Amino acid sequence: MRIDGGDVAGIRWWAPDEAPLRLSGFAWYEQDRALRRLPKSSSGAVPEAVDALAEATTGGQVSLRTDARRLLVAARMAGPARMDHMPPTGQSGFDCYIGEPGALTHAGVARFEPDRTDYVATVLDLPEAEPDRVREVVVNFPLYQGVQEVAIGIPEDAQVAAPTPYVRPGQIILYGTSVTQGGCASRPGMVHSNILGRALQMPVVNLGFSGNGRGEPEVAEVIATAPDPALFILDYEGNSGGAEALARTLPEFIAILRAAHPDVPILVLTRVRYAREGAFATITERRLACRAVAREVVTSLQAQGDEQLHLFECGDLIPEAVVDECSVDGAHLTDLGFWFMADGLLPVVRALVAGSDQSPTEIR
After folding, report:
1. What is the pLDDT of residues 80-119, one digit of tens each?
2. How open is the CA angle 58-26-314, to the nearest 5 degrees?
3. Which residues contact 206 (CB under 8 A, 6 or more apart)?
4. CB burial class (10 A; 0-12, 13-18, 19+) of residue 267?
5. Taking every annotated instance into account, which residue ranges of this chain make up the domain SGNH hydrolase-type esterase (predicted)?
6. Can you tell me the distance from the alpha carbon of 275 to that of 54, in angstroms, rounded to the nearest whole number?
7. Nearest to residue 272, comparing CAs of 321, 310, 237, 298?
8. In angstroms, rounded to a whole number, what is the distance separating the alpha carbons of residues 332 and 94?
9. pLDDT tens-digit readout, 182-223
C-alpha cells in the first residue's frame, strides 16, 4: 500500500499481523489471512447479504505494548463513509485505547475526509507532559466498512513489544443484528462488544450483520466452525422476523451450535427496549412476544438437559427514563445506549466465561 499525506517521517509501518503485534477479532484469520468476519469458504454457503457484510471489520483489533507517544493508521477502505445516521468515525474510522489491561482509556480516533477511500490518520498523539513509559495500546477497526489494507505507523525509535496475554483461553462469539454490528456508535471502541472485550481482557468476535441477523441454519453451520469458542451469544431477535419466525429458527440455531460444541455455554439474549415504544404500542407487543418465545425455547431445552444454555432478558438494560436518549433513530443505539448494554451484560458474560454455576438471572 502506498502511504501518502501527513507527517510520516521517521515512521515505521507495521502490518496488523506482524509480530509482536497481535491481530484479533477475525476468527478465521489463521485459515484465510483475510480481514473478514466469516471464512472465505462461506461465500455461496450463506446468504449473499451476510457474505457481503462479513467484509465489514467490526470487532477487529491490533494490540501491542509500546512507549511511543504517536501512532498512525494508514488504511484503504472498501468504500467511502456515506451512512446518513452514523458518524464516519464509527463507520470507517479506527480508534485507540491506551493504559493497562482492564483499565484502558480512549486516547484518539482517526479523522479523515468521509468521501476518501484511503487515508492516513493519527490515532495517538500524547503531549510532551505525559511521562515516558510503556503502555498497552489497542487499535479498534471500523464498524461498518471493509478494510482492504491497513498499516500501523509507529516511530522508528519506539519500543514495540507483544501485548499482555489475554486472561483466559478462547474467544466470545457474538451473533446478531445491526445493533450488534455497532449501529450507530460514534467510534469503534464504543460498541458494546468492544467495551466487553476491554473489561474482560479477552477477544470478542463480532458477527453482527446489519439487517441480516436472521438466524439461518446455514449461518449457524459456519459460526459453529469458529475456533476456540469460550461462549456463544445469540442476539438476533431484532432481525428474526417476529415471534413465529423466531420460534422456528432459534431451536435449530442452538442445536447446530450444540452439536459442534457440547460443552460451550450458549447465551440467548432478548432485545433491549426500543426508544420508539413510547409512541408505537405494536413495537412493544412484538418485542414481548419474541421474549416469550425465547423463554419457552430456552426453558424447554434446559429441561431436556442442556445445562450450558442460558437466557438473559435485556429489555430493562436501558433505563426507561433515558431510553429516548439512547438511540439515533428509535432503534439503533448511541454510545450511551451501548454503554448501558455493556454494563448490564458484563457480570453475566464474565460469570459464564469464568465457569460460574450461577444462572444469568441469579447473577443479575
Report:
1. 999 999 999 999 999 999 999 999 999 999 999 999 999 9
2. 50
3. 25, 37, 58, 59, 174, 180, 181, 182, 191, 193, 194
4. buried
5. 171-350
6. 28
7. 237
8. 20
9. 999 999 999 999 999 999 999 999 999 999 999 999 999 999
